[in-house]
Each structure stands twice: as C-alpha cells, then as structure tokens.
Amino acid sequence: MRFVGAREFDESALRDAIARQLSQIAERGLKETRANDAAFFLELFYRRHGYLGASMHCEILAGGGTLPLKIAEGPMPEIARVDFAGNRQVTDETLHDYLIGATRASFSRFLGQLPFVEADIEAGVDRLRSFYTSQGFLHAQVEPTRVRFSRDKTEAFVTVPIHEGRQYFFGTVAFRGETMLLEGALSGRHRRLVADRA
Q1: CA quadruple 109, 121, 55, 12: dihedral positive or negative?
Q2: Would the N or C end of the chain have less CB density within 10 A of its end CB?
C-alpha cells in the first residue's frame, strides 16, 4: 500500500486508520473489493477530520502486489459563524457550547476557528434537543442545520433553526396519605430529586 497525495497526515496515521482493511489484505490477498474497502474507510477517516471533499482512488498495479491509493484531500472548511434562529430564553453562548462541544474536544489543538465536521454538528443538534427537554421545553424543536460554504470551501456558515415553545415548571407538590416524615421534609427531598434529574 502506497499513499499518494497525502499532506496533512503521515503514513503511520493513515495505516492506523485502515488497519483492519490492511490486515484483511495481508491475510486474504489484494482484491478489488478489499482495495475499495480500504479507500472507503480512508475517506471516512478524512471526513471525520473535517475534509468534507476528500476523495480516494485506488488501482491495483499489474502483478497485484502494489496498491497505490491516490488521495485528494481538498480543503478543510472551518466554522466561520454559527447563528441560532428562534431561541428566546436560552442564550446563543449556551447553545453554542452544546453544538460544538464534540468538535472542540476532538480538535483541542485548534486555538482559533474549529473545523466543520458534519457528524459532530449533527451530534451537537441532538445534544441541543436533550438540553431543551432537560430544561422543561417539552415541545421544543431543533431543526437540522442549514450550512452555507464560502466559494473556496474553506469556511462554513451554520444556522440552527429553533422553536422553543413553552417552558414547563413544577407547581405545588402535595402529599396525601400517611407519611413517616413531615410534609416539609418530603417536599425538600422531592425538590432535590427533581434537581438531580435536571
């Protein structure tokens, strides 16, 4: 296996990314289907690292002993701006942290703008939905993001449409029947339980 065109990752990192496919090739021989699998999973590796336009091309050379894998990395778009549309009761700053938390954890080496990783953004939208539910917005809707790229594909502008709806709170809690504890103590325990679940 030879990697042609790789600039951002060294050969060791690329081999680690498709270690399973390389192992299958070593054990069962170099066939077109296995070569295509290696190219497919290497492309997934690049996309998980923000290279949305990355593409791979493989061609088994005569004799079947060498597989040059040609890599076209393409640009890695960065998140230039994130806009939240429709939020009224939750700040943009709070929502921003939930949306890009996974990307920030994966790319902690980035000091400025973060790369746009589609899977991380989708996971972030799911976290936003869970957050709204935990805050009592039982009917909140966080729609899929709208993404616009710059002409050179180096910047991504993300918009997250949100419909918060009504926020629900617990009202007065009344206890009936015989209890071993005073009602005040039960109410305090109930409040702690609600706070823990939130």
Answers
A1: positive
A2: C
pLDDT digits (tens, 9 = 90+) for 85-97: 999 999 999 999 9
Q: Residues 6 or more apart from 121 whose CB is under 8 A from it? A: 99, 100, 103, 145, 147, 158
3-state secondary structure of 53: coil
Give the tokens for residue 91: 């700040």
pLDDT in tens, 152-165: 999 999 999 999 99
Tell me the CATH number of domain 2-72, given options 3.10.20.310, 3.40.190.10, 3.40.50.150, 1.20.1730.10: 3.10.20.310
- Cα–Cα distances in Å, from 151 out to 20, 47, 49, 121, 148? 37, 19, 20, 21, 9
Task: Write down the pTM of the prediction.
Answer: 0.71
- In this structure, what token pair is assigned to residue 111? 């000091």
Please list the residue range(s) of the chain that carry CATH number 3.10.20.310: 2-72, 78-163
Q: How is residue 50 written in tokens? A: 């923000």
Q: Which regions of the chain does DSSP assign to beta strands (E)?
A: 2-4, 55-58, 68-72, 78-85, 141-142, 146-149, 155-163
Q: What is the CA radius of gyration of the chain?
A: 25
How many CB atoms are located within 10 Å of the residue 191 CB? 12
- Is residue 95 within 8 Å of residue 160, measured between CB atoms? yes
DSSP letter (8 states) at residue 63: T
